[in-house]
Write a structure and sequence with these properties.
Shape: elongated
Structural class: mainly beta
Distance between the termini: 170 Å
Radius of gyration: 52 Å
Strand content: over 45%
Length: 1012
């Protein structure tokens, strides 16, 4: 039509010279409303017209024609207004559409005002001006049936380039276009074929090939009248990241006889039809009607939205269209079925739900600058129905601000009914914790206030029969959950509150929590989370299978925390737990921070109080999750702490961090049976790295250890302690080394080995926490070496089967363990008075070996002489009561129950040696010197000591490896280290010391009644 206009102007100037012709054409261009342009020169003569350097602009489109040649009868054109074009050729032209208004409509939220100025709140999705321009370009030409002059067209040959806008920051894309054809005249149908080829760019700026072809067919009822016009075209784009076979097909027809205008548009790609629309207008002013269909998959859209993480989905729908011919009002209705293959890509909480189907029926109207959602009914279902959404009243959006509004703001906009949300989906909230139970149900309503949408419950979300199970086997059953959730979101951001979340069991509240999460509408702002909670520990302890050893027993617990969740996350919280006794409590504070690909760094001081005993512990360091190699770098420190209290605190914390100290379930029996099951992992899982201990005082097993220092190095299958330090005796540090290894291929995978050299220390502190009232049973300096050894199927099993061994060696000291009162145990002879006096006098002698006077004054005037055996036993008892030893060795093994097994006791002295074994029991609350003692000894003697025992009839004929002759009977001691029960030993000596009936005659002693 532009070329026809130019030709008409040119014909009017044929009578003038070229300069005048050019001036006339320029004048006519300037007179056309909305047109701008210029012409270099015009030449018209002998049925031919030539124009050069023609520039035309309209509506943002710019056409540059270097040269146009046309053949037509000039006289008929000038005088009779008959444009019988026999040939029209234009090549090398350029049509620039990069600034065409309709092709560059501002996208939603572009920030322009309704008048086109900057600073507005939004833009129209499809304004009335844009709609009218669209109709003018696409459909208005079809309605222009009458022409102001006669026209026929044949021999059309056009070739040039069309420039269209490319992606942002790329510039324009050039498409080469050709158009050839003709045959357009009265009673005939003319056809113009066109092609288009070019190279464009996809959303990732990758090159793609653009190819198009089509035809325009026009039938003329008269030289000035069209009876039918049809436009058909196909545009294909190939390459880059676009779907294979992406093709847009369009066909638009207008028939004057039937007064119908129809159009079909079809988009295909990836081997199927993506979208299809057919419209029909039955009269110039009649209604616009049509229908639509879509069949989309996530793979169809991924190339167009490269920066969006799309869930796996498929959407199939169809419906109807109606509106007015200029498209300023368009109404669509229908149904849409969407299947989400991987709903967890929308929210991790939905992992495990499986494919979700959304069945939606809707009614949508666009008019002017308003988008109106008249009705919506949506059903969400997985394997079973999950929820329904029903619109209670229409919702409208102003396209300039995109703020929703309701006809009745006081009435709710939509109702949401939750029919069966699987409780198991909440398992994804915390690693290692799974939930099972009945599906949750509830009801909510949506309201609109200004630009804010709010959600509030009408029936709280509830579920019963819920079981919570941790990876280490800890489980809670029979819980009922109730959640009242309030939420709102708008241009200023969103906010969500739970008021409250309640867990109950058998009508008893187990735990409650209230909290709030929010984020402002500004870009890049974090989610701010705060919550409080409290728990009934007594109620928790009643759960079947609850292992009370793994928790600090108490009455209740409570806490609070705040968190900032964004690119960098910070969490701060505190908690307290109270026991049944007012003096029992646990309190702590935790602060942590972490970010993408960065470890979690935290600082957590705790205080545990049980009775009068308290532990103050600081845990700080960093933890890197599985993506970074499951690495820890921790420090545990404190002024004073109890190992038992730390263990009570550590078990829940280890479980929360993913550690599992439960029984390892591995196959028993043959190696083949073991290999047939999945190999177990150690309780520290895959964690590696150092754990440093730094305690000024650490209490364990009834003992207090000062200055405990060391680093535990965690590896895949071992925990190693090198050069640990502990002060076991004043002013002396002890070095400790050890390893806990784990072999998954064995039935008992845990193996513990550790050793420590305590150096030389005094014997008294070894056996007594306080100085004894009298002389200690042993004195001397001992070299002490300690070791730990154990094996088990789990951490608890290992501790139950771990023994502590001490090897004591001394090279000189005093030994008083065999001291006993024999004199008082010897029965009186017939002359009881004289003998009793004599024995009493002799028994009072202390500390003299052979220096005692063997004679005693009787009640008469003469001396009383004792029997040889009696005198020998008494002399032996004096000598054995305290003597110096040359060497003493002893192995003491502390069992898992706290008792001590005494083995390999060996003592050597000048005339005595001792070997033996025994045990020290373990009763809670008793000091070591008060624990029950059992000791069995074998005594050997030589030289004078052997002579005494031989005289007393106590020595056997057997000798040990050192040449000491052994006593006939072993020595048995019991009682405690503080109060040794030597009754068996004393009785044995007393029996040997009994006077023999003929002892006086054989020894030549003087009877008690004899005179000097």
């Amino acid at each position: 039509m532009i070329v026809t206009l130019v030709l008409a102007v040119i014909l009017m100037a044929l009578a003038f010279v070229p300069a005048v012709q050019t001036w006339v054409v320029q004048t006519e261009i300037n007179r056309q409303p909305g047109w701008q342009g210029s012409v270099g020169s015009i030449s018209a003569r002998f049925g031919k017209i030539a124009a050069s350097d023609l520039h035309l602009e309209y509506g943002g489109a710019a056409l540059v024609l270097p040269l146009v040649d046309a053949s037509l009868p000039l006289t008929a054109a000038v005088w009779e207004r008959k444009y019988l074009v026999q040939g029209l050729t234009a090549k090398g032209w350029t049509l620039d559409l990069t600034h065409l208004a309709i092709l560059n409509a501002n996208p939603i939220g572009a920030g322009t005002s309704p008048t086109g100025g900057a600073g507005g709140t939004g833009s129209s999705l499809f304004s009335s001006d844009q709609a009218r321009m669209t109709v003018q370009v696409l459909g208005g030409i079809l309605g222009r049936w009458n022409l102001p002059w006669d026209l026929s067209l044949d021999g059309l040959d056009l070739e040039g380039d069309v420039l269209v806008a490319g992606p942002q920051q790329v510039g324009s894309v050039k498409v080469h276009v050709t158009a050839k054809g003709g045959g357009m005249a009265t009673g005939r149908e003319g056809v113009i074929q066109f092609t288009a080829d070019g190279v464009g760019l996809d959303a990732r700026n990758q090159p793609v090939g653009v190819n198009g072809m089509g035809r325009i067919a026009a039938r003329m009822a008269s030289p000035r009248n069209f009876s039918r016009i049809a436009v058909k075209g196909d545009l294909s784009v190939k390459g880059g990241s676009l779907p294979d076979g992406l093709t847009l097909s369009a066909e638009v027809t207008a028939d004057r006889a039937t007064h119908e205008e129809t159009g079909t548009f079809d988009l295909a790609g990836n081997g199927h039809h993506l979208a299809n629309m057919a419209v029909r207008n039955s009269a110039p002013t009649g209604p616009l009607t049509g229908n639509w269909k879509i069949e989309l998959r996530d793979s169809d859209l991924r190339a167009f939205l490269p920066d969006r993480a799309l869930p796996g989905f498929s959407a199939v729908g169809e419906g109807t269209l109606d509106g007015v011919p200029d498209w300023t009002r368009l109404h669509a209705a229908g149904r849409l079925t969407t299947v989400l293959d991987r709903p967890e890509s929308l929210a991790p909480l939905l992992a495990g739900l499986g494919p979700v189907t959304l069945e939606t029926r809707f009614d949508l109207t666009h008019a002017g600058l308003t988008l109106r959602l008249g009705s919506v009914d949506m059903t969400i279902a997985g394997a079973h129905p999950i929820a329904t959404v029903h619109l209670l009243q229409p919702v409208e959006w102003d396209e300039l601000s995109w703020r929703p509004s309701l006809p009745d703001p006081a009435t709710d906009a939509a109702a949401v009914t939750v029919q069966g949300f699987p409780v198991a989906l909440f398992s994804g909230l915390y690693q290692g914790v799974t939930l099972t139970g009945n599906e949750a149900s509830g009801a909510y309503v949506l309201g609109v206030a200004g630009d804010t949408v709010n959600l509030r419950p009408t029936i709280p979300l509830t579920a019963g029969g819920v079981s919570v199970r941790a990876a280490n086997g800890f489980a809670i059953h029979g819980l009922e959950m109730s959640l009242s959730l309030l939420a709102n979101w708008g241009s200023d951001g969103w906010q969500c509150e739970w008021t409250p979340l309640t867990l109950t069991n058998s009508g008893r509240t187990w735990a409650t929590s209230t909290g709030k999460a929010s984020r402002t509408g500004k870009a890049g702002q974090p989610v701010v989370l705060s919550a409080t909670w409290d728990a009934d520990l007594d109620a928790l302890a009643t759960q079947p299978g609850f292992d009370g050893r793994r928790w600090i027993k108490g009455r209740s617990a409570s806490g609070e925390f705040t968190a900032s969740l964004g690119g960098f996350t910070r969490v701060e919280g505190k908690f307290t737990a109270t026991g049944h006794n007012a003096s029992d409590s646990l309190a702590g504070n935790v602060s942590a921070e972490f970010g993408p690909n960065r470890p979690v760094r935290f600082h957590a001081p705790f205080k545990i109080s049980v009775g009068s005993e308290a532990s103050d512990v600081l845990i700080e360091g960093s933890v890197t999750g599985p993506a970074g190699g499951s690495r820890v770098d921790l420090t545990l420190s404190g002024k004073s702490a109890s190992l038992e209290q730390l263990r009570a605190l550590a078990d829940p914390l280890l479980g929360a961090a993913g550690f599992d100290s439960g029984i390892v379930r591995s196959a028993a029996g043959t190696p083949a049976a073991i290999a047939a099951v999945e190999k177990p992992r150690p309780f520290w899982g895959d964690w590696t790295g150092p754990v440093t201990l730094d305690f000024d005082r650490l209490r364990a097993g009834g003992h207090t250890f000062d200055y405990v220092r060391g680093t535990l190095n965690l590896s895949r299958n071992a925990i190693r302690l090198d050069h640990g330090l502990v002060k076991l005796v004043p002013d002396k540090m002890t070095t400790v080394d050890g390893e806990l290894s784990f072999d998954p291929d064995t039935v008992v995978p845990y193996l513990l080995k550790a050793g420590a050299s305590l150096g030389e220390m005094d014997a008294v502190p070894l056996v007594s926490e306080t100085p004894p009232a009298g002389d200690p049973v042993i004195t001397g300096r001992f070299t002490v070496a300690s070791s730990l050894a154990g094996a088990g199927a789990s951490l608890d099993d290992l501790l139950a089967h771990t023994r502590e061994e001490f090897r004591l060696t001394s090279h000189g000291g005093a030994f008083r363990l065999l001291k006993t009162d024999v004199a008082g145990a010897i029965p009186p002879p017939p002359d009881s008075g004289a003998v009793a006096d004599a024995l009493g006098s002799v028994g009072s002698a202390v500390g003299k070996f052979f220096g005692s006077d063997r004679r005693a004054r009787g009640p008469g005037s003469g001396l009383v002489k004792l029997g040889k055996n009696t005198q020998a036993v008494l002399d032996f008892s004096y000598a054995i009561a305290e003597f110096s030893y040359d060497q003493l060795t002893l192995t003491a093994i502390r069992e898992a129950d706290g008792s001590i097994r005494l083995e390999d006791l060996a003592l050597t002295a000048a005339e005595v040696d001792l070997t033996g074994s025994g045990s020290l029991g373990h009763k809670d609350g008793l000091a070591l010197r008060a624990q029950p003692l059992t000791l069995d000894l074998q005594l050997g003697a030589r030289n004078a000591m052997a002579t005494l025992l031989t005289t007393g009839g106590l020595l056997s004929s057997h000798k040990d490896s050192l040449g000491y002759t052994l006593m006939e009977e072993p020595i048995h001691l019991s009682g405690t280290l503080a109060h040794i029960d030597d009754s068996q030993w004393r009785a044995a000596l007393a029996e040997a010391a009994k006077p023999k009936p003929d002892a006086g005659a054989k020894s030549g002693t003087t009877p008690a009644t004899a005179k000097p």
